[in-house]
Design goal:
Bound molecules: adenosine-5'-diphosphate, magnesium ion
CATH superfamily: P-loop containing nucleotide triphosphate hydrolases
Number of helices: 4
Number of strands: 7
Radius of gyration: 14 Å
Largest sheet: 7 strands, mixed
Strand content: 25-35%
Oligomer: single chain
Shape: globular
Number of domains: 1
Structural class: alpha/beta
Length: about 150
């Protein structure tokens, strides 16, 4: 899925948050609608709140462990049912790199996959991936657009 394809999705939910806690809460809300096998492709510049939102998703999936950014590990796995895979493609150059670390095979499984810097691996994202775009609109405000997922 190419990044521009996100924009053609029918369902778009737009939310504005004014704190880290509010973005975490949006993640929790997204988690309520996620089921096994789903890929959540996050997009947004450094500091836009991708990791914060991913922590909220983990919280919503009842993960008690401390969730940290997978910037260096690239893939962090959390043992829940279904398991959560928190992926950060920042240090990958492209889809080929992702394939080499077994990423493409991984996201075809029955887990939930939350991917930061997903725009770096566009060809690896399934066409039914949920896309979340985060935009910095102020020092503590973020515009969050969720494509392709009905929120509860
Ligand atoms: N509304 C907001 N939502 C999320 N983070 C915010 C918000 N306002 C300010 N911040 C700050 O922005 C930073 C977001 O960091 P992080 O989630 O690691 O972003 P990313 O993973 O996109 O680089 C944190 O320092 C956080 O305190
Ligand atoms: Mg991050």
């Amino acid at each position: 899925m190419k990044p521009e394809d996100f924009l053609t999705r029918k369902s778009v939910v737009e939310l504005e948050t004014n704190s880290e806690e509010e973005t975490f809460a949006v993640g929790k809300r997204i988690a309520e609608s996620l089921t096994a096998g789903m890929v959540v492709a996050l997009r947004g510049t450094l500091g836009s709140g991708k990791t914060c939102l991913a922590k909220g998703i983990a919280g919503g999936l009842k993960i008690k462990e401390n969730v940290t950014s997978p910037t260096y590990t690239i893939i962090n796995e959390y043992d829940t049912t279904p398991p959560l895979f928190h992926i950060d493609a920042y240090r990958l150059n492209n889809d080929e790199d992702f394939e080499q670390i077994g990423g493409r095979e991984l996201i075809g499984g029955g887990g939930i996959y939350v991917i930061e810097w997903s725009e770096r691996i566009p060809k690896s994202l399934p066409s039914d991936a949920v896309a979340v775009e985060l935009e910095i609109t102020g020092s503590s405000s973020r515009l969050i657009r969720v494509f392709g997922l009905e929120l509860k």
